[in-house]
Design a protein that fits this description.
Layout (H helix, E strand, L loop, with lengths): L1 E3 L15 E7 L2 E10 L2 E4 L14 E3 L9 H16 L6 H17 L1 H12 L3 H27 L2 E3 L8 E9 L2 E5 L7 H12 L3 E5 L5 H14 L5 E3 L4 H8 L5 E5 L2 H12 L5 E4 L5 E4 L5 H13 L12 E4 L13 H7 L6 E5 L3 H10 L4 E4 L13 E2 L5 E2 L1 E2 L2 H6 L1 E9 L14 H12 L2 H8 L6
Parallel strand pairs: 1-2, 8-9, 8-11, 9-10, 11-12, 13-14, 13-15, 15-16
Antiparallel strand pairs: 1-5, 2-3, 3-4, 6-7, 7-20, 12-18, 17-19
Helix pairs in contact: 2-4, 3-4, 3-6, 4-5, 13-14
């Protein structure tokens, strides 16, 4: 099999069973080397340059079944989904809720199979699989079902005096046919969570799961084929060739979870069609620890935030700690000194602070740019559905979770309503001095000046 890197892989120890080769994107280009998997460890038969970093979202391809993916067949798939979307089927509230209910039912009925697949792929313990993948995915489904009618409602907004008499509203409309490319470390949650948002927003969707989690990928393809509407929701399994064929197509949105290097490839492919993207990437997430904290609680929460999430393989996991000289003599003099250290690095997906100092908390929030933050804890911001989850700069663009998932796959359409009444001659030429005065007063929005202008008494 061939493995192609696509994201930050912090530890190359994985559980595989066959001889393979890895193709990795390094600083100098493409690297290829052979290795074997033994006793759940990767053993490389050639050295890796120190500047090379293994990556987290990997693509596996079985060489014995290697074949060129038919781009035309992929185009046919997209066209079929586009026909479904054009029919208006996916836009109805009834269709959206029926699909969300089916996914929720699928999770309930197939919980055992999901846990088994996650164990096969990642040796993920049953409790962790339930808490971090199954429960969170089902919570997303339940929230969408509960709030969907509210999310779909048009939002009335005020109009200006310049358009009087008028009314206006913002209409959330689905983008169309969207592509979701998932990753391996939370292969169930990070596949279905954005799909739930895409369905809630009324789109047709193609899911490309990570083949580095083959058991979960196969299960998702099977289960969604049974429970979801196949005319609008499809799963494409495969590796580099399949993903490349998908990226050749024109989509109305691409949602990618992985590393910054492949994120650039996805963004470049999307740019050919002016397709908008959401990139959920990663980055090195710092923890800043003040000297006035409860050290035992702080240590427990940092360790839990690092190792309780997929054994450390999580994009929002703790990567490095900065504290004061009181705790570590070789570190910063003042806690504020850490801010510059963090800001000199690429913007992280998450940043954490442990402190009881309210002024330090405010400065941290105001001065550190990150996708998200937690104060006096780690990782838990991910679980709050009313908060957006997403990166900034190198850690990504766009966000999702809760209503933000709905918004990520929606277009906010501006609509202005006017009647045939109130058709003032002021807007039409010739623009006499009197009309110009009326226009200035109208655009200024001052009702008194508008009246004066209409009476011919307004002066500049």
């Amino acid at each position: 099999m061939t493995i192609v890197s696509a994201g930050l892989f912090k530890d190359c120890t994985r559980s595989f069973k066959s001889s393979s080769s890895i193709v990795g994107v390094g600083l100098g280009g493409i690297l290829t080397y052979r290795h074997t998997y033994k006793t759940n460890r990767v053993r490389f038969s050639s050295s890796i340059p120190s500047s090379y970093h293994c990556c987290a979202t990997l693509s596996i391809k079985m060489e014995e079944a290697k074949q060129t993916v038919d781009v035309d067949k992929t185009a046919v798939l997209v066209n079929e989904l586009r026909k479904t979307f054009s029919s208006g089927k996916t836009k109805s509230y009834e269709w959206r809720t029926s699909q969300l209910e089916s996914i929720s039912k699928m999770i309930d009925e197939k919980e055992k199979e999901i846990i088994e697949a996650l164990h096969k792929d990642l040796l993920k313990p049953e409790l962790e699989a339930f808490l971090s993948e199954i429960s969170m995915t089902k919570s997303s489904c339940k929230l969408a079902l509960k709030e969907l009618k509210h999310w779909m409602m048009t939002k009335k907004v005020e109009t200006s005096m310049a358009t009087y008499p008028s009314s206006a509203e913002i209409v959330s409309e689905p983008l169309g046919v969207v592509l979701v490319i998932s990753t391996w470390n939370f292969p169930f949650l990070l596949s279905l969570d954005p799909v739930i948002g895409a369905i809630a927003a009324g789109n047709a969707v193609v899911l490309k799961p990570s083949e580095i989690a083959p058991a979960t990928s196969s299960l998702l393809a099977s289960l969604l084929g049974q429970y979801a509407d196949k005319s609008a929701i499809r799963v494409v399994e495969g590796a580099v060739d399949e993903t490349s064929a998908l990226l050749e197509q024109k989509w109305d949105k691409i949602f990618f979870t992985g590393g910054a290097r492949v994120g650039r490839i996805v963004m470049a492919a999307a740019a050919k069609h002016l397709t908008p993207v959401t990139l959920e990437l990663g980055g090195k997430c710092p923890v800043v620890v003040d000297s006035n904290v409860n050290l035992q609680v702080t240590a427990r929460r940092i360790i839990a935030g690092k190792w309780a999430c997929n054994n450390g393989q999580a994009c929002i996991g703790v990567d490095y700690i900065i504290t004061t000289k009181e705790f570590a003599p070789k570190l910063v003099e003042k806690l504020e000194d850490s801010f510059d250290m963090i800001n000199r690095k690429p913007k992280p997906l998450a940043a954490y602070l442990f402190s009881d100092d309210e002024q330090i908390k405010r400065k941290f929030v105001q001065n550190i740019s990150a996708g998200g933050m937690a104060i006096n804890d780690t990782v838990l911001q991910l679980t709050v559905s009313s908060l957006p989850f997403g990166g900034v700069g190198e850690s990504g663009m766009g966000s999702y979770h809760g209503e933000f998932s709905f918004d990520a796959f929606s277009h906010k359409k501006a609509v202005l309503y006017r009647s045939f009444a109130g058709d003032a001659p002021t807007r039409y030429p010739p623009y006499t001095p009197g009309k110009q005065k009326q226009m200035k007063a109208l655009l200024d929005g001052n009702l008194f000046n508008i009246i004066l202008a209409l009476l011919g008494w307004f002066k500049d």
